[in-house]
UniProtKB/TrEMBL annotation:
Gene3D superfamilies in the cross-refs: ABC transporter type 1, transmembrane domain, P-loop containing nucleotide triphosphate hydrolases
Organism, scientific name: Paenibacillus polygoni
Glycoprotein in keyword set: no
GO MF term (any one): ATP binding
Name of protein: ABC transporter ATP-binding protein
Transmembrane segments: 12-36, 51-71, 130-149, 155-173, 240-259
Keywords for this protein: ATP-binding, Membrane, Nucleotide-binding, Transmembrane, Transmembrane helix
SUPFAM superfamilies: ABC transporter transmembrane region, P-loop containing nucleoside triphosphate hydrolases
Cell compartments where the protein resides: Cell membrane
SMART domains hit by this protein: AAA
Pfam families membership: ABC_membrane (PF00664), ABC_tran (PF00005)
Length: 581
């Protein structure tokens, strides 16, 4: 509801004009009823002189009605488009500010369906349904007053239908809203599934998952269908009850009207005007069912958008940051002190302490699931430690804003994560204000110029969805160029070369060496051959640090690192032999 109220307040002036247009519309409708009555009276009294003036009045009424309806339609679609734009932008902005834990728990497809389908429903409601809900009772009231003037006994019959139809609406409205919310949730699940599958075409083709996915999709689509049928059933019951009540009142009133004409209580002209007016009284009530249903559906959609809007965003800015005033950001020393961290109740990091020294290369190694990526997530401020502290040049993360924390790092993730658009756009995401020279320098340092020069459109080449039109090594080098351009004091590398062949790896390694040169670097490494020259290697095991030292020191210990090194070296040799063969 809060979503609705805010938007109505914002576009109040549209609603005022629409209110005026509605009043003109009602006046025109009542005038048509008056015209019918008069024309009939003229015909009965054979007063042909009145025909022409009445015809002119009719033409004028039709013209005014036409213009008014155009203004009405235009304003409604404008409100609807404005509301949708506003809400979409608001939800998207909110989405960008959501915490990492929100993204961990919610599927992106569900967010997509809220921003698109739910948003459209709300736009329709605020542009159309709401006006109808105001116009219809007003129309019924005015027509009713006119009816009272013509014949109060007939008017009383029409009065019966209002409360009866409203009662049905109230009784069935809640069920419509609930069913539509469930239906939208199921739509969200289905959209998420389609998004997953469409983004993994190579996997479903290679693993021949077509029939399994077909089955899964059919199940989800059926679930949507069944929910929509349930929703349709309830709205149809409401619709048919309203129609039955409305038409019963109509038949009753016409019969009684005919009786009054037969007994010369009212004229035939009054009966004609009455029939028209009765339509205006009944129609709002019969259409009330569908408009009320639409409103309930849009309230369900508003609930789903409200759920996102009321999520607590990350606080990116913070007043009085100690780091800003204290330190020269380029010389960064990061200390992780006795960090404990758990996802829900599963402890992942246990009393973890690491010193990330300025200008040094720190490598993190350890078995899969030992908590290396989680450590990065904490460094980037995606999660707060449950215990312990992270300090930058002695300043605690709790005294820094998230903007400042994230400004400290450039990240080359394991999956390069490019965005649809050109190479240039993707590289500039590292620093949108960078000059053309800086960008080109970053491209050269990342060894990306070697392949970009071969593309006819150079930096303006489209990369495709998530960079699908580039090779793995090319994507990595674009991600490295993006990281170089950020010129952040600390570089985080997450197994950046793990999935590449030897040639690509060599190019990427060269690029990384450029990037790491004299820069504080933390790298998660699977290929231990790439970190032998690291200033410090931290070995993690089940969330704890079990060894720290240089490659030589750790090899002499003959402990975890030694074992890891031997196992991985064997694997790398096997891989190399495989690639040579
Ligand atoms: N968002 C999450 N919610 C709940 N548990 C998670 C989440 N992310 C990771 N985990 C769990 O935390 C543990 C550590 O995961 P993490 O990704 O940090 O390990 P890792 O050392 O980087 O592994 P790998 O080398 O395989 O990438 C794992 O047991 C994993 O299942």
């Amino acid at each position: 509801m809060a979503v609705f109220k805010g938007l109505i307040r914002k576009y109040w002036y549209f609603y005022v004009v629409l209110g005026l247009v509605t009043v003109i519309d009602i006046t025109m409708n009542l005038s048509i009823a008056w015209l019918f009555g008069n024309l009939t009276e003229t015909a009965v009294s054979r007063n042909t002189a009145k025909f022409l003036p009445l015809l002119y009045v009719g033409i004028a009424l039709i013209l005014i009605m036409g213009i008014n309806q155009y203004v009405n339609g235009y304003l409604k679609s404008r409100v609807s488009a404005n509301v949708q734009d506003e809400l979409r932008t608001l939800t998207f902005r909110k989405m960008l500010g959501l915490s990492q834990s929100y993204y961990d728990k919610h599927h992106s497809g569900d967010l997509l369906s809220r921003i698109t389908t739910d948003n459209k429903t709300i736009g329709g409601a605020l542009g159309h349904t709401l006006i109808e809900l105001i116009k219809n009772p007003l129309m019924a009231l005015c027509a009713f007053i006119y009816l009272v003037i013509i014949e109060w006994r007939l008017a009383l019959i029409s009065l019966l239908i209002g409360p009866a139809i409203l009662l049905c609406g109230v009784l069935l409205g809640r069920s419509i809203r609930e069913r539509s919310t469930v239906s939208q949730q199921k739509w969200g699940n289905m959209t998420s599934f389609v998004q997953d599958v469409a983004g993994a075409s190579m996997i479903f083709k290679v693993f021949r998952l077509e029939s399994i996915f077909n089955q899964k999709f059919s199940t989800q689509s059926r679930a949507v269908r069944e929910q929509e049928i349930k929703l349709g059933t309830t709205t149809s019951i409401l619709q048919s009850l309203s129609n039955m009540i409305g038409f019963s009142a109509f038949v009753l009133a016409i019969t009684y009207g005919a009786y009054l004409v037969a007994n010369d209580v009212i004229t035939i002209g009054s009966l004609m005007a009455f029939v028209q007016l009765m339509n205006y009284v009944i129609m709002p009530f019969t259409t009330f069912a569908s408009t009320w249903g639409e409103l309930q559906i849009s309230l369900g959609a508003a609930d789903r958008i409200q759920e996102v809007l009321k999520e607590q965003p990350e606080e990116l800015e913070q007043q009085d940051s100690l780091l800003r005033s204290n330190q020269e950001k380029k010389d960064v020393h990061v200390s992780l002190e006795q960090i404990d961290f758990a996802y829900s109740d599963r402890k992942v990091l246990d009393h973890l302490s690491i010193e990330i020294e300025h200008g040094k290369f720190t490598a993190i190694v350890g078995a899969s699931g030992s908590g290396k990526s989680t450590l990065f997530r904490l460094l980037l401020g995606f999660y707060n430690p449950d215990q312990g502290d992270i300090r930058v040049n002695g300043v605690s993360y709790s005294d820094m804003s998230l903007h400042e924390i994230r400004a400290l790092y450039a990240l080359v993730p394991q999956e390069p994560q490019l965005f649809t658009g050109t190479l240039r756009e993707n590289i500039l995401y590292g620093n949108p204000e960078a000059s053309e020279e800086d960008m080109k320098e970053a491209v050269v340092h990342a060894n990306a110029h070697l392949f970009i020069e071969q593309f006819p459109e150079g930096l303006d080449t489209q990369v495709g969805e998530k960079g699908s039109q580039l090779s793995g090594g090319q994507r990595q080098r674009i991600a490295i160029a993006r990281a170089i351009l950020k010129k952040a004091p600390v570089l985080l590398l997450d197994e950046a070369t793990a999935s590449l062949d030897n040639e690509s790896e060599q190019l990427v390694q060269d690029a990384l060496r450029q990037l790491m040169n004299k820069r504080t670097t933390v790298a998660i490494a699977h290929r231990l051959s790439t970190i032998q020259h690291a200033d410090k290697i931290v070995v993690m095991h089940e969330g704890k640090i079990v060894e720290t030292g240089t490659h030589e020191e750790l090899m002499q210990l003959c402990g975890h690192y030694y074992e890891l090194y031997r196992t991985r070296q064997n694997n790398e040799l096997i891989e190399e032999a495989g690639s040579i063969a």
